[in-house]
Amino acid sequence: MLMVLAVVGLRGAAPPKIRPRVSFVASFDLGQWIGGCRVLCRGGGVLHVVVAGCGSTGHRGTLEYPGRTVTLEPAEVAHLRIDDVLNCQMGGLAAEKHIQYILTVEKRKDDFVSVVMEHLRMSGAYWGLTTLDLLEKLDTVDVDEVVSWVMQCQHESGGFGGNIGHDPHILYTLSAVQVLALFDKLNVLDIDKVTNYVTGLQNEDGSFSGDIWGEVDTRFSYIAICCLSILRRLNKINVEKAVSYIVSCKNLDGGFGCTPGGESHAGQIFCCVAALSLTGSLHHIDKDLLGWWLCERQVKSGGLNGRPEKLPDVCYSWWVLSSLIMIDRVHWITKEKLVKYILDCQDTENGGISDRPDDAVDVYHTYFGIAGLSLLEYPGLKAIDPAYALPVDVKHVIGGLSCLFSSSSSVRSSKSFCSEELKSEELKELSLSSSYGYSSPSKFSGSFLKKDLSPVSVFQGPVSCCTGGSSSVVVGSARGLEVCGDELNVEELTFNIEVEEGNAEPYVKELLLGAQLRHKIFCEDFVVKAFYEAEKAHRGQMRASGDPYMQHCVEMAVMLALIGANSTVVAAGLLHDNLDDTFMNYDYVFGAFGAGVADLVEGVRV
Predict the structure, then answer these.
(1) Is residue 472 helix, strand or coil?
(2) Positions of CATH 1.10.3210 in the chain
(3) Which of 144, 164, 204, 522 is close enough to 516 for a disulfide, judged by CB 3.0 to 4.6 Å?
(4) Per-residue pLDDT reduced to its tens digit, 25-70
(5) What is the spatial distance between Cα 19 and Cα 37, in angstroms, rounded to a whole number?
């Protein structure tokens, strides 16, 4: 591949011995970055390039644009690969500047910005700290100081206020839980107390109020579901009614409003889509219709707006993009242009990101800009979960179950092989978070985007598999699932649930009934089948406590269900020890449940 060096203008008493070989006319835009230098005025220029390696060792070259000159050592002279021109045009992320900006904002206590944001400081802490975590600099803050301040914001009701002494609100309660989760400090909470506060805000129709004053909004539905899911207490609310209320807010254009009949808005859409994702209810969404509405939010500049005929705003890089990812329609927008728009909104001198280029920066837009770039898989950033809005490595996003999928061996079955299949290494990497991938090849391929991210959501998202080049979507249902392009209905599998139920010991029926009372997913035929197969395999095996070993399998599966796992993952949880401790092998599980379950079970082998 041709490598070139950009060298513009040679100056000084002793010109460097790097000589241009060819030149061409290039037109530059104001603020554009090329080869590490920013264009400071409009107009055309002549860009001279030399073949890499032609410079003499020990001599320096200069790279000039109007109003600016940069001196470069031979090894530093701007290397431009032909297939990386896009990256150079977009410039780069001023990560260190943004880190310093966040840390500086935290230290300011008495300026105007601090004062006007005092009432929502808890959310500001979440934005700033999550930004640092995505930039892998969370260790620059004093954990004990942050945790102490967060706990001082808790009200006797169990909820949290935006600052010390402020009234509690469900919004700040989620922010507090998210901040504590970032530091793996949820143990400082009285979880039941926080849970009681959140559950007490659910109304008879399934909606949620933000606080005791009663404002209802689908934002609060998402916040309640997300908060309780992180705390592993989602079963404490009426999920069915919560979902029903959210669905009642769906509009004819496919979007969602803040209340039934409310105008579709990208922020509300994120809240509704994420809540439905976390509760395993994405089937209520017309993904094509909603995807079309969302992709229409991209404007000429590459940015996204929240409603038709509105200006773009960096924050919608999160609200729109995460929604598109959760419904698997992210390939309907031009991701390159969105990356460029976000980068253009940076203050590269002082740090921070604004809503639009050249506007004032703030912590809110800095967070959502960085989070959007993370969703776009920009280099140097941690991956972020599109539903929880937390880095995927946050332990409590997975309910503390990372040990279940901790195998370091990579599994790639020939029966389920495809470029996007779920691998045990990816499970380890993603720690069982809600992982969503892109269903079409990225236009950034070969450039800066990360490779081999799993498209599989282990939490009720679509599960993509393929065979022979065709792909399909798996969604947990009571009567069937698509596996690797071939539909497997429970009735067609070599298994008779009625016979198994009739032959089961009383304690087995009690185990299943107990699980069904705790989560409705255990009423699905597919999961019931996995239960009886696991029981048959472990029959006669006992734990050290004297309890049947099957009890452990059920406990594991119930925990997965309570944190939002779909039927594929719950079935794998029931069967997770079978390949090591029973007569079952991979082919047996594959034949009975398909590659989705078989690969998960294989992936957790020690």
Answers:
(1) strand
(2) 401-421+456-606
(3) 522
(4) 333 343 444 444 333 333 333 333 332 333 333 334 444 433 444 4
(5) 19
Burial 538-563, CB ≥16 within 10 A → b, else e:
beeeeeeeeebbbbbbbebbbbbbbb
Place of tokens 């401790």: 581
Give the separation between CA 182 and CA 567, rounded to whole angstroms: 28
Amino acid in position 65: Y
What average pLDDT score do residues 135-144 get? 94
243 vs 555: CA distance, rounded Å? 25
pLDDT of residue 61: 42
How many angstroms separate the CA atoms of 171 and 179, rounded?
Answer: 13
**What average pLDDT does the structure give for the chain?**
72
What is 385-410 written as a DSSP string? Answer: -TTT-SBTT-GGGGTT-TTTT---S-
Residues 213 and 219: their CA atoms lie apart, in Å, by 16
CA distance 152 to 165: 8
What is the architecture, at CATH level 2, of domain 401-421+456-606?
Answer: Orthogonal Bundle (1.10)
Tokens of 323: 């929604």
Point out which residues pair with 298 in neighbouring strands: 304
Residues facing residue 208 across a β-bridge: 202
Calpha distance 547→517 (Å, rounded): 20
Q: Are 127 and 364 contacting, i.e. CB atoms less than 8 angstroms apart?
A: yes
pLDDT in tens, 566-591: 888 888 888 887 776 667 788 888 88
Q: What is the pLDDT of residues 398-422, one digit of tens each?
A: 443 333 332 222 222 323 323 233 3
What is this structure's pTM? 0.59
Per-residue pLDDT band for 514 (boundaries 50, 70, 90) equals confident
Q: Report which DSSP code applies to 287.
A: H
Q: CA nearest 348: which of 68, 93, 70?
A: 93
Q: How far is CA 544 from the centre of its chain?
A: 39
